[in-house]
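Handout, page 2. Input:
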Amino acid sequence: MNSVARPAPQAGATRKLTTRVLCLGNELLADDSLGSVVAEHLRQFVPPEVEVISTPEAGFHLLDYVLHVQRLVVVDSVITGTAVPGTIYALHENELQAVPGGSPHYVGLYETLALARVLGLPVAEEVFFFAVEAADCSTLGGEMDPGVLAAIPTLINMVRDMVNARAERSMMKKQSAA
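Output:
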């Protein structure tokens, strides 16, 4: 059940992709469905050079999604047990610390990014994470926690503002270079 949405390329046109928003999570699993919901809303607001992908995949299956793009913005749910459900975390990749022990996904996105870099693959130059504290990411058909649900509009605005601001700066750089 992969809901990847990629615009069809126009004949003879090459789309310059600068930013990819990768929304992770399984739409069938309670709070884990956050990524799917956010992706559906974001697609209405992003400029053409931003791609929004929603996928339940994990580990090395994410490798293709972290390549061939300047910026990667990841949206996911997380259970840390240190905050109330709905708390939004916004972190640059260099602010993350590797978690000792295995990922609940066996190989996580962090390990996938590290492997891509070691192999010299064209991984995103800048990676930013938006995560929302969840209460339940495993109940099949479960309802989203009210706190997580309430955080969605704020999260959408944060991601939208980030990608739009970066797109504007990129456009201004191109205009000043001309």
